Amino acid sequence: MSSARNLIIxxxxxxxxxxxxxxxxxxxxxxxxxxxxxxxxxQMSEGVAAIVNDEIVSTYDLRxxxxxxxxxxxxxxxxxNIAEVQKEALRGLVDEHLEMQxxxxxxxxxxxxxxxxxxxxxxEEIQGMAEQNNMKxxxxxxxxxxxxxxxxxLRQELGAQMTWRxxxxxxxxxxxxxxxxxxxxxxxxxxxxAAKPQYLVSxxxxxxxxxxxxxxxxxxxxxxxxxIKQGAPFPGVARQFSSLPTAANGGDAGWLTxxxxxxxxxxxLDAMRPGQxxxxxxxPDGVYILLLRDKRAGxxxxxxxxxxxxxxxxxxxxxxxxxxxxxxxxxxxxGFTTCEALETEASKVSGVVAGDLGETExxxxxxxxxxxxxxxxxxxxxxxxxxxxxxHLVAVCGRHASGAKAPTKDDIENRLYGExxxxxxxxxxxxxxxxxxxxxx
Length: 441
Known about the structure:
Helix content is 46%, strand content 20%. The protein has 441 residues and is an alpha+beta fold. The chain has three domains: 2-175, Porin chaperone SurA, peptide-binding domain (Triger factor/SurA peptide-binding fold), CATH 1.10.4030.10; 195-299, Chitinase A, domain 3; 302-401, Chitinase A, domain 3. Strand 7 and strand 8 (286-296) form a beta hairpin. The longest helix has 28 residues, at 82-109. It is elongated.
């Protein structure tokens, strides 16, 4: 029940929005959830909150979205923040109408195209939300009903979000190409960054252009910080108020590395302790709020995952034997394509054996091996190197800092893809706004 109470705490006040009038907050005593009034169905007397390309956003829709925002963010309505809650709810509804109008337009042109999220997909999304709050889906729906939120309000919001993401992937995903050079550069940056201090950060960004200016963004950030300090969960606030792509993950920005963070944010993080929420951090285009979840020193050792191909060769081998062994290894080296195929390629040449050397620190390698591997990128092979046991080729199959899990190639590609698609989606939505007729009442 504690999770359910956390979800409904923000809706303890009754929100009244007059038909065609601005929102008002009326003080009300905290009531038991079971006694909360049931959400009323929209009536003809409901007013118009906004018109988006001749499509009406009703005051009922706005009131419901405000309640949903309060419940899912944990923000408690006050005289100071209720106007901003209304603005945020209305901005979300306007965006949603523009997005769904665009999708219906595309579906009308392509009759065989069906982009909208299915009821089953929405059910699965609700189940995921419930699990994040240590609840089951019926409990989550019950908590929303107790707070006055019609379940259909949540389904509409989630359905629109899921449909828009699917449309963006379908329309622009094929245009995004992540090249090997981009991945290699990202791998190199990750390796270099591993030796620097790192911060596990959650973030909220209030976009000044979206809320009416820098002053409004700073005031809104102050109000949100006050709510977080009073118990509103940071992830819930981020999902509802942040303009960053990380909002979908509750503001989780992951591990950030010193030197790769904007200086103004870096200075704030340096002065924070894990568990602290920052004051508002003004930036040229808005305001950040940061939560430092953890901090760690950089790793100093580099670990390599190595494989080898070798020819046994005694210490006193003749120059002719050395030349013959070298020729065999050159054949393997020429045919090398991937670490996974090294054993297969080596088995084609008589006298050559290949195997896994495992993971080792660079500093633990002999000088000859170290000199070779330090010049190689992941997926490359070098040598031969002469030892008392024979002649060796060595392949670098992985590289990462000690104490840190190296991102895989797929991890890097997915992150780069997501960043580019998110940027395209934000620009596209801005274009829809610029070409639309929007009237707020």
